[in-house]
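Supplementary material to the annual report.
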Amino acid sequence: MPVPVELLRQQTAAILTSWGLPPDHVAATTHVLTEADLRGVDSHGVSMLTLYDDYRRTGKMTLRPAVRVVRESPVTALLDGDGGLGHCPGLRAMDLAITKCAATGVGVVAVRNSNHYGAAGVYALRAVARGFIGISTTATWRPAIVPTFGAQAMLGTNPIAFAAPTRRHLPFCLDMATSTVALNKVKLAALVGQPILPGWALDDQGHTVTDPAVAMKHIALTPLGGTPEMSSHKGYGLAAMVEILSTTLAGAAFAPSRAAQHPDAPRYDVGHFFLALDPRAFRDEGDFETDLDAMIDALHATRRADPDDPVLVPGEPEEHCRTARERDGIPLAAELLAKLRGIAQATGAEWLL
Amino acid sequence: MPVPVELLRQQTAAILTSWGLPPDHVAATTHVLTEADLRGVDSHGVSMLTLYDDYRRTGKMTLRPAVRVVRESPVTALLDGDGGLGHCPGLRAMDLAITKCAATGVGVVAVRNSNHYGAAGVYALRAVARGFIGISTTATWRPAIVPTFGAQAMLGTNPIAFAAPTRRHLPFCLDMATSTVALNKVKLAALVGQPILPGWALDDQGHTVTDPAVAMKHIALTPLGGTPEMSSHKGYGLAAMVEILSTTLAGAAFAPSRAAQHPDAPRYDVGHFFLALDPRAFRDEGDFETDLDAMIDALHATRRADPDDPVLVPGEPEEHCRTARERDGIPLAAELLAKLRGIAQATGAEWLL
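Predicted assembly:
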């Protein structure tokens, strides 16, 4: 039975409130998680509550964080997340970038001392809702990507989200991890006992593995490209670029160094990056959207390899999913429902689903 | 016999001057091409003069362009390249982004009505020389990348360059086409008659080809990832992102639409994108460079899959090449030398090599 999104929002908010999170954090985390569920990005929806509950129980997140602006100029800002979940500082940062962009044409905001912030695309699309181009990247709490020629994960799955406004078409929204595949795809293969493709993951010697159980033991994903012959150095370079924008620029912690030097560090100190850019600083009102619509028309009209498989534009499958799920509700696996129920019970949150 | 870089600069300048290019264009194109040769990016060095000579003979570039600023704010600008080569407007755009960045912390400049601008990394590194993060992307005159599920090239090889300053280490510099491999790799395989890897290129039905001669006939490269199973939709999304930043934002021409609607258009109207970002808008002086140095130390120390293959950081091979070539000169193949000699003779340029 699919769950109406409004009910899922109430349930998520009830759980987060029962943890003692302040109302702005409850609202932000609820919004970002359920947006991901609406868009079909189930790996980053309310299923994330299981990870956040781990954080809570192991003291890896501040429950009543004081998000603050550390540094600010008319075009830039740095925020400190005070070790809480990343959604509230993330939305504040993107909104600040948007406000600055409205005044100057560009806004760039970095966040340090944060945590998991959900799906990167939700932040990039926030800029599009104001008519701006939006970019967001984030580092992660745990290394997962192995650099080309390496035998050890050193970089997070480090996603890049880029969204741009259109008029006739759905907004363009690229939201991609810089690994070849998401860890979830490996997990799923392990669950059903299917081999994974060579080039998705490595063992602890840096060799390709096809046994998903071995792959899950090491968490050593390849960078986009998969193998050196297929240009994995490009995916590695992109993951490193995201790490520099998210971690180094914000002054956050580089995960493998933190894990080696402070295995019991109370906070993960994850960093994020946000950029908003106004097309009207470069083009007359509406011309950007008109041209992007025409480009999307051309991409849709691309001759197909298989007549049954149309060429899609990034963001379209997610928007179609949103339309269906706003109407029909969000499907939640029985296993996830049981986990969420346990999480709700542990802190006395009302069970609504 | 390797050619000393200073002599190669003189030869390049002599050829471009004989074409009637103004001194600022001669200097800019000479600089960008020989920088690529120094960095070992031979595909984007003086070998490009053969393509530019085609442009000249077929009237596809303005010989005495008037580059101008079309629109400007304290943080942004749009330049028009007037249909000339891209190096002069490219360097002016990056320098303008740097000047704005020095004043406000960020500078974003787009260029329209331009042409091939050489290696993207040269522009990104220009920001690093001033202590800033630099980003540059460009579209190209000809579609080469096939969208996932397509059977037809729709996007250029659309490179992304990202460079960041360090203190102890060589600057970080990612400079990558968003195709799996460069067209040059396919060309080289065709020259020596070796099959190419499945996933590098497609035929005109969208099927994988391994015969490089067939691949060269269609110019249908895969996006980074190579196949749908290896997440080619991510490389496709990145190529589309670059197209939006370079073409749509600047108001330049989307190559497949231009080629279909105006096959004899006198100009290619290529667009570029430039961004400079000051780490000191976010961090105390020197902290960014210190942290990036530490990250590079950690990446170098990654456990290796093969003890003989160290983990490198983007930009290092190119900087090592520069050191060697500044000392020993730049090797030029006999075939390229013969072509350059013919190009010089055609317009009466002195032959110096």
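Strands of chain B lie at 68-72, 76-80, 106-114, 133-138, 160-164, 172-176, 201-202, 208-209, 270-277.
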